[in-house]
Amino acid sequence: MSLSEVLGVKPVINLAGPLTRLGGMPLEPDVAQAMAEAGHSCARVEDVQEAAGRYLAEVCGAEAGYVTSGAAAGLTVGAAACIAGRSPAAMDQLPDTTGLPNEIVVQRAHVTAYSHALRVSGARLVDVGYVGYPGQGITWPWQVEAAINDRTAAIFYSVGSSRGIVELPELAEIGRRHDVPVIVDAAAALPPKENLRKFIQHGADLVTFSGGKAIGGPQASGILVGRKDLIESVALQHQDMDVYPETWTWREQYLESHVLPGPPHHGLGRPMKVAKEEIAGLVVALRRFLEQDEAAEQQRQNEALQAIADRVSNLPCRAELQDPSVTGRPYPLLLIFPEGGKRTVADLTNELIEGDPSVAVSQGFMDLGAIALLATAVRKDQVESAADRIAEVLADA
Ligand SMILES: *Cc1c(COP(=O)(O)O)cnc(C)c1O
């Protein structure tokens, strides 16, 4: 059954990319099928996680891996792991961090709307450096180093295009010198697929990716990979602990070996639980993503955007198709600058999503006066009707 059959919500043709607010990417049939079939039976979730974690670790070249309910959840449970380590008492206490190391050092240019996800663990952000480039200042390694003390739990790095920052290899070197782990937010840093391994290679201790963006997995899935001891802490804080010590799945590993004094209770990660359906869907989507021919995929996107550019070419607007080989961005992008002067880009954006068919466009270039279109999350059979609707709206812009 479709969403409109189940809930009466009409579908949106998504020309904005794999955004959470639009439900991410349409799932490929094999991903949807893996989720449906995983739903037909039960399994111990920790076993499912362990098997998936091994696969994620292998793909990313990391010691260990874990499926989270998204990259943002990966930041939260990753930060909790850096704070609590393997102490059940500390796990039990979070997000109250009294007496625990709870500071996360972050360059100001990396304080994003997702930093909140780190703070959910109980962490406090300590931001250093300047935002900008020469004239306004940059972040220096000594500024990061000066912020590290015995309350420091982690250093945070957000993958993006900020200038004047301390880059990951150097940040990781600082972390190693002070025995402080580095957490990397690489949620949207795919493609290229080589990036799955790049940040671990650059020395990160934990790296998180969205499962529901370019990978094309379920929206409520994410990848967290990194150091084995930290991923273990994540797993321990993510369990649903309705068991006696004598029947705990991991009793040999943790109790009989005296590594832990007892199983920790439901931890900070419990409200961010991940179901077997998401885990199965993510693994199948990741396999598919790894096999994808990136050049052919860009070609598909270019063709879809070119068809829309052609459709509006004689309307009062200027359309610019930007090729990734020129822009360095991972996706081709179509910018349309309306020139009719009647309505703002915000008006046109609203009209497109509220119309019929409903078309979502990116707001990434609204400040430059452009409607931006991305073809990552649009199906081929949707392009023509989207082009017609965009032309209809632009004809009276
Ligand atoms: C999308 C995004 C996130 C959140 O990812 P989810 O998988 O949706 O939780 C975090 N950080 C950045 C930079 C993002 O772009």
For the secondary structure, the number of strands is 12
Structural class category: alpha/beta
Extract low-pLDDT stretches. Answer: none
What kind of sheet is the major sheet? 7 strands, mixed
Mean pLDDT comes to: 95
**What is the terminal-to-terminal distance?**
37 Å
Strand order, sheet with most strands: 2-8-7-6-5-3-4
| Unique bound compounds | pyridoxal-5'-phosphate
Within CATH, the superfamily of the largest domain carries the name Type I PLP-dependent aspartate aminotransferase-like (Major domain)
Task: Indicate the CATH topology of the largest domain.
Answer: Aspartate Aminotransferase, domain 2
Q: What is the strand content?
A: 5-15%
Assigned CATH class of the largest domain: Alpha Beta
How many separate helices? 16
Q: What's the gyration radius in Å?
A: 23 Å
CATH second-level architecture of the largest domain: 3-Layer(aba) Sandwich
